């Protein structure tokens, strides 16, 4: 995972410290879509996110990239409107259409003014995109080539190469193993009929989570949710993904013409609903999640100057997401940096954090490092996560208490249960001794 992705992972693991008292309402539409709603009258704006369990982990065998291409094409022509017409209509009313896509989720977001003329136009576009994607052959071919070009470009980036190899090594034949963007040869073979079938199966109402925050009433929110869900198929919610199997220890070195080696170390971690999440999250802040306060930064950067930065994180997903440690270092000192990183992890798992380290981590997370939610759009991201992963509605209200409840013993026990230092996967891209 890139530094950017790491920051996103960290962000999504943080609390809404300044807004912990959000009144989250939840219901289900008659069509089976689940709805998460926060009534907020501070701004005349409505933000909506509609998410489906249609991420890249749902790609059928031999069709890696199908989920990504399906999601990409949703707003590239729908309900008889071209992509240009959709863009113009949205621009005319000052609305913004966006999207999210990862291994678990595929979603569409909308920001619109709440005044009736503008809102009605924007919701009409959103409904068409969700319910009537055209999947025009010419547009599909264009987007296939664009996706393939993006994959080829990523192949020139050692960080992307390392990330791709890491997921394959950690997850083996699990659906999380392949890259979210897919594989060029498999994308070339994708057909319009395949996209339409994937859409019908995965974009059904029982598979949808509608999240909303804005200047509307509960009654208006119910009407909007019903409108969005009514045109979706009734295909049943997709089954949960299988649980990943922990990989055996391995080290893979990939030759790459770069001055620095990109190093990733890790293993299968935890799901979002894992009861050990908080001890792992707080403990990892000490290990590698606390920036310049972390042990990895002290050992790898401060004491030895092997890297500009070193980090670690748990990326909880629908089923166990990865635990990953990363750094970049000069090729000639790769082995030395690797040894320090591995030793730091091993000692942390054996000894746990000190009382002082843990106190500092908890203070930073709950007080000194509060996340300031300064827009409805940011809050919407959290609502979507809570809804999609079925987290408790009081998740934000209890977050601080759960962090404060973590002690040294809990961290040690949680790490011992989930991370075996003798079974870590290592990927090095840029090493001179590829193997």
TrEMBL record:
<keyword id="KW-0732">Signal</keyword>
<feature type="signal peptide">
    <location>
        <begin position="1"/>
        <end position="20"/>
    </location>
</feature>
<dbReference type="InterPro" id="IPR011249">
    <property type="entry name" value="Metalloenz_LuxS/M16"/>
</dbReference>
<dbReference type="InterPro" id="IPR050361">
    <property type="entry name" value="MPP/UQCRC_Complex"/>
</dbReference>
<dbReference type="InterPro" id="IPR007863">
    <property type="entry name" value="Peptidase_M16_C"/>
</dbReference>
<feature type="domain" description="Peptidase M16 N-terminal">
    <location>
        <begin position="35"/>
        <end position="177"/>
    </location>
</feature>
<protein>
    <submittedName>
        <fullName>Pitrilysin family protein</fullName>
    </submittedName>
</protein>
<dbReference type="Pfam" id="PF00675">
    <property type="entry name" value="Peptidase_M16"/>
</dbReference>
<dbReference type="Pfam" id="PF05193">
    <property type="entry name" value="Peptidase_M16_C"/>
</dbReference>
<dbReference type="InterPro" id="IPR011765">
    <property type="entry name" value="Pept_M16_N"/>
</dbReference>
<feature type="domain" description="Peptidase M16 C-terminal">
    <location>
        <begin position="190"/>
        <end position="365"/>
    </location>
</feature>
